[in-house]
Specification:
There is one protein chain. By secondary structure, the chain is of the alpha/beta class. It contains 8 helices and 13 strands. 39% of the residues lie in helices and 23% in strands. The strands form 2 sheets. A 10-stranded mixed β-sheet has the order 6-5-4-7-8-9-10-11-12-13, with no helix packed on it.
């Protein structure tokens, strides 16, 4: 009996010691956990979820590497070219061009640009390039290019408005208000527009229009204008007279307003006077047909008295 008790007690003590040893070992293991393990334990996701996330990250990195290699070796461009060729064989190729908004210009250059592209596939057609080529045409102020599947290219044109004919170095050209040359003009087919003469006169057309707006009554009578010395205008009227204006926007506008007032009162135009010279703000010079020159003082209000009568013209 006593021997049995000793055996059971020994076993219990061994088990207790083993349990203490086990608990002590676990405590030591917890104390030696790394900060990475502690961070993973703190995340509100399971270990399986973390493994899946890591797998997707590896797949994403691998895919990005493949895309980068493909771009380096030009595979997207090759694939795009192949797709364009397939689309062209399927009938998606530019065969028709529809031009809108054209009233004055010749449409042929527009067709030549639209149909002259190296790659006419509807998918591969470079619309910004086509538009840039259209804008090089003198008449084209703006253009919009669009596709209409399966085979039509639609071109909407905004034309420039011609306002004058520019004569320079013996050549005649139609120009718009900004001085852009639209097309050559034949002397036998001159449009009913003012003629501007002189170097850089085309670039002064907008200024000429603003100048004539100061005298609306004279604007329909204007036949042409010469840009003199790159600084001032000589105006020519349909009745044959020339009016020399001074330099400067304000000074020339004031002189033109005074001339319009005098013409309204004394009917200066159409009386056979060759030239009116208002370059000197204090003098109003008239050149008569015989080559005579008369000077009249200019009043404070711009009026001139004692103008030549018709019977004095000779």
């Amino acid at each position: 009996m006593a021997e049995a008790k000793i055996r059971r007690g020994g076993t219990a003590r061994l088990s207790s010691a083993k349990g203490r040893a086990t608990r002590g070992g676990r405590g030591r293991a917890l104390k030696h956990k790394s900060w990475v393990d502690r961070l993973v334990d703190a995340l509100p996701v399971s270990e399986a979820t973390l493994q899946r996330m890591a797998s997707w990250a590896i797949v994403g990195i691998f895919g990005a590497v493949l895309v980068g290699l493909a771009m380096i070796f030009g595979l997207p461009a090759i694939a795009q070219k192949q797709a364009a060729e397939i689309a062209a064989r399927a009938g998606f190729e530019v065969e028709k061009v529809e031009v809108r908004g054209v009233e004055r210009m010749d449409e042929l250059p527009v067709y030549n640009i639209a149909l002259g592209q190296v790659d006419r596939s509807m998918l591969a057609l470079d619309l910004p390039h086509v538009r840039a080529e259209m804008l090089k045409l003198g008449w084209v102020k703006d253009a919009r290019i669009s596709r209409r599947l399966p085979d039509t290219l639609v071109v909407d044109i905004v034309e420039r408005d011609p306002v004058a004919v520019w004569q320079h170095e013996g050549q005649l050209h139609l120009i718009d208000v900004a001085g852009v040359v639209l097309q050559p003009v034949s002397a036998n087919a001159m449009p009913d527009l003012p003629l501007v003469v002189g170097p850089n006169a085309n670039r002064q057309t907008a200024g000429l229009n603003r100048l004539m707006e100061n005298a609306p009554a004279l604007k329909p009578m204007l036949a042409g204008a010469t840009w003199v010395g790159n600084r001032r205008w000589d105006l020519r009227f349909q009745s044959g007279e020339t009016l020399s204006l001074p330099e400067g926007d304000r000074t020339s506008a004031s002189a033109l307003v005074n001339f319009a007032r005098m013409d309204g009162v004394n009917r200066l135009l159409g009386r056979g006077i060759v030239k009116f010279d208002m370059r000197d703000p204090d003098r109003f010079v008239l050149r008569l047909p015989q080559g005579q020159v008369q000077e009249k003082p200019m009043g404070q209000d711009g009026a001139v008295s004692d103008l030549p009568r018709r019977e004095e013209e000779g």
